[in-house]
Amino acid sequence: MQSYEALRILLDGMLYMMALFSVMSFLQQRKAIYWQYAVYIVCITFTFNLNDQDYLKVNYLPGTNFLISLLESVAFAMYISFAIQLMNIQENDPVSYRILRYMILVLILETVVDCFLFSFEFSPEIISGSYTFFRFILAGTALVVLPRIFRLRQAVVSYFIIGTFLFVIGCLLALWINYIPAIFTRSPDSPFSFPITYMELGVVAEVLCFTLGMSLQNRENELEKIKVQGQLIVQLRENDQKQQKLLKIRDEIARDLHDELGADLASISMMCHAAEQQLTLNPELARKSIRQMGETARKVIRVMREIVWSLHSAHDSAGQFVHRIRETAQGLFDPNTTTLHFDVGLTDATIPSVMRRDLFLIYKELLHNALRHSSAANVYISFEIREQQIFLSVRDDGQGFDPEVGYHGNGLASIRQRAASLNGHLAITSHASQGTRATLNCPLPA
């Protein structure tokens, strides 16, 4: 066995094993990039074997075998398609993508020209010249694209650049020695006297680089999948938290409707029935019942407006909240002799609806407590947002109370619970005959 033949068997075996690996990868992953690369390897290896037969001919000229030229064109087209997909060139570098598409058009044009030249039996010199011309165009264009691709700064690009560079160098050396008789001796004992040796060594080096590159890409894809899965898990957890908040809001609305509106609506029904009975027996008492129904109905409407306001996204601004707390305080204390004092800071911050609802209910409960229990001449209300913190304060100069005992009912416990749900701190200080001060500060979501 001669040295050239032994080298060719070794190199062919390596390439066919790589082609088999690509086919198996395609069957496993169903990605076009693998079968295209397998076609490229098989086609290019077949051309090497056909070239070996042509080298035995007298006056050999490259490109004078139509089948070799056709197989090379198919191989290069698969190679270009492989490169486009491997590095996602269409998205990462549209200019290089257009150049590579033009290279495929050059290959198609070359095939058409070859069909014409072979069909009309042009001289071998013209056919070989045409072949060499198109091949140098492809090699030169590839050397133009490579620096552009290198600027993509992707890990897989480095392997592609090195592999393509070695392949192009092998092709150029193979074309070059065809025209240097001192080297192109085609001696079986001298493998490097055959142009195919340079091309096949370039292809083998390229295949090894691409294999490493595809392995790296697969690794990156796996890491990306893990990253995406992690993001999905975080998103699912966030969605679950949002769902829990929505359920909490729904439960609170149901509780408010039951606690604040249920009793009032039931009393309206009872007063309506009583008024109906009193119309003939005691008209004055019936009129009193009707007036009570009107007052209760207005209270129901007010409570409904407060619930709707606290949930409506159009009222998320701090300015809307300030307007609402002013309106609420004035509505509560309007028939009273108590003087209201407001100290509010203007801001363009946004208060989320879930937070705004609890904040407003705390504020409203503090106002009710001041109205019912303090007998105060003055009530001081301050509201400010600074450094992503909300500060709300309600102070009166009334009779005060013992914070350890609290008000009657569960009002104080309710506002402490709401303050805790806001991750806030509620401080209440009070002394007999010295008034009461309630201060709430809580973080504003970023």
From TrEMBL:
Q: Which UniProt keywords apply?
A: Kinase, Membrane, Transferase, Transmembrane, Transmembrane helix, Two-component regulatory system
- GO cellular component terms listed in the entry, alphabetical order: membrane
Q: Does the keyword Phosphoprotein apply?
A: no
Coiled-coil residues are none
Give the matching PROSITE patterns: HIS_KIN
What single Pfam family name could you report for this chain, choosing any that match? 7TMR-DISM_7TM
Transmembrane segment boundaries: 6-27, 34-51, 66-87, 99-120, 132-150, 157-177, 197-216
Name the InterPro entries on file. 7TMR_DISM_rcpt_extracell_dom1 (IPR011623), HATPase_C_sf (IPR036890), HATPase_dom (IPR003594), His_kinase_dom (IPR005467), Sensor_HK_TwoCompSys (IPR050482), Sig_transdc_His_kin_sub3_dim/P (IPR011712)
Cited CDD domains: HATPase_UhpB-NarQ-NarX-like
Q: Which PANTHER family match?
A: NITRATE/NITRITE SENSOR PROTEIN NARX-RELATED (PTHR24421), OXYGEN SENSOR HISTIDINE KINASE NREB (PTHR24421:SF61)
- Official protein name in the record: Sensor histidine kinase
Q: Which organism is it from?
A: Arundinibacter roseus
